[in-house]
Amino acid sequence: MSQLFIKKFREKVTLDLEEEKILLNHLSLKKLKKGEHFLYAGEITEHITFIEKGVLRAYVLNSKGDENVVLFGLEGWTMGDLNSFIKKKPATYNIDALEDTELVLISKESHVRLLDILPKYESYIRILMTDAYMAIQKRTANIISLPLDKRYEIFVETYPDIIQRVPQYMIASYMGITPETLSRIRAKK
Predict the structure, then answer these.
(1) Which of 43, 72, 121, 173 has the smallest count of CB within 10 Å of its CB?
(2) What is the pTM (predicted TM-score) of this model?
(3) What is the 3-class SS of the chain, one letter each residue?
(4) Is it the case that residue 146 has pLDDT exceeding 90?
(5) pLDDT greater than 80 at residue 19
(6) Cα(111)–Cα(143) distance, integer angstroms
């Protein structure tokens, strides 16, 4: 089941067959049903999570108990609570499945081992973290500098699959607006 993981890995870093075998020996698989949580805020995450199939979302609860979506993840994406994984701190995010989902997991123990024995894994992780950091910078800049209609346009262009697979009220939450405001923006397009 980890075919997409290996494909995405190889898009960033080349692997020979022996290196692929080492990597595959450190992976585990997990299936989630729609609505099932992978992680709850307050838990300590023990895995790097790669989405082989399905959709995940990460969200936080505000003081009123409302969900605020922080991130969506589709096939081929890596997702989790990095601070919790690296520093063994309680997770900030709740992560649940918006569809039946299949995950490839790398445990903390396997992660540390792979960093030691497979230099290409370290390169892959570095590339993932760099890409994630750049995406956060871009999102932050867009939030503070662009009007809502332009932010929505960029969101649709960047993540067309999400628009088809995620309820509109969750997209509104991700954008930090009400569903009604999102409806008005979409009506103008």
Answers:
(1) 43
(2) 0.91
(3) CCHHHHHHHHHHCCCCHHHHHHHHCCCEEEEECCCCEEECCCCCCCEEEEEEECCEEEEEECCCCCEEEEEEECCCCEECCHHHHHHCCCCCCEEEECCCEEEEEEEHHHHHHHHHHCHHHHHHHHHHHHHHHHHHHHHHHHHHHCCHHHHHHHHHHHCHHHHHHCCHHHHHHHHCCCHHHHHHHHHHC
(4) yes
(5) yes
(6) 33
pLDDT of 28-37, one tens digit each? 999 999 999 9
Q: In this predicted structure, what is the pLDDT of residue 158?
A: 87
Pick from 24, 35, 17, 22: nearest CA to 1: 24
pLDDT band with cut points at 50, 70 and 90 for residue 1: low
Give the residues across from 69 on adjacent strands: 59
Token reading at 50: 């790669």
**Cβ 137 vs Cβ 129: under 8 Å:** no
Instruction: Compute the residue count for the chain.
Output: 189
Question: Do 67 and 139 touch, CB atoms closer than 8 A?
Answer: no
